[in-house]
Amino acid sequence: MSNTSPEGRADSAHMPAVTMEGVEKYYGTFHALKHIDLTVARGEKIVVCGPSGSGKSTLIRCVNQLEAVQEGRIVVDGIELTAGPKNVEQVRRDVGMVFQQFNLFPHMTVLRNCMLALMKVRGIARDEAEATARRFLERVKIPEQAEKYPAQLSGGQQQRVAIARALCMNPKIMLFDEPTSALDPEMVKEVLDTMIDLAREGMTMMVVTHEMGFARQVADRVIFMDRGEIVEIAGPTEFFGNPRHERTRTFLGQITGH
């Protein structure tokens, strides 16, 4: 008896949210990801850190195939992403992504930015899409900004709109690619607080960030990457208190000043 649905989704109730096996990624001759093996459990919060160019953003961008891989296997919510275009489309419907540069449509109001994918991708009627969008703008604490355009908002507010837009699609997994690195320091906290609330609600999250305070507070596991490799994976207490690898210790020393 088959354990897959007609859409090609395995019976995923007890399966990991993300599985990466033997993943290799090249840009031309540059080896960006080297034999990545990683399993992310449902509801787990993973923080990925490492020096610039270490492959961390590439890693999470492979989870919804914004970056295609040359070798290996990636399974997301029971669907093998690396098995074909139809599966990629299915996975992207269930994986939310928040980018460094917000990626909002400047000619649309905040409300329309949040409604668009609901209507175009999910086929939801306008009234229902608007109600959903307003609910998630409330959730990220900016309901009063609904009729404004992105340029009228602060960077922190724009990033919270981007988070609300992703949440409108009811994702099973949220990917964050350095979501605070383009923000002024005083705006970082409001975005991190939104992400902390999301983590408390049980969302599966993979977050690329240099915000180590966030990692200590939220992460179930912290991944340190360098030169395209996963060098170390540990819980935050062990990762920050007793890192095993010299490269991890050097990196932590550089970003914490110790």
Automatic annotation (TrEMBL):
Signal peptide bounds: none
Parts of the chain that traverse the membrane: none
Key words, A-Z: ATP-binding, Nucleotide-binding, Transport
Location of the ABC transporter domain: 18-252
Molecular function as annotated in GO: ABC-type amino acid transporter activity; ATP binding; ATP hydrolysis activity
InterPro entries reported in the protein's UniProt record: AAA+_ATPase, ABC_ATPase_HisP-typ, ABC_transporter-like_ATP-bd, ABC_transporter-like_CS, MetN_ABC_transporter-like, P-loop_NTPase
PROSITE patterns per record: ABC_TRANSPORTER_1, ABC_TRANSPORTER_2
Keyword Protease: no
Statement: the UniProt record of this protein carries the keyword ATP-binding: yes
SUPFAM superfamilies linked: P-loop containing nucleoside triphosphate hydrolases
Family of this protein: Belongs to the ABC transporter superfamily.
Protein's name according to its UniProt entry: Amino acid ABC transporter ATP-binding protein
Taxonomic source organism: Jiella endophytica
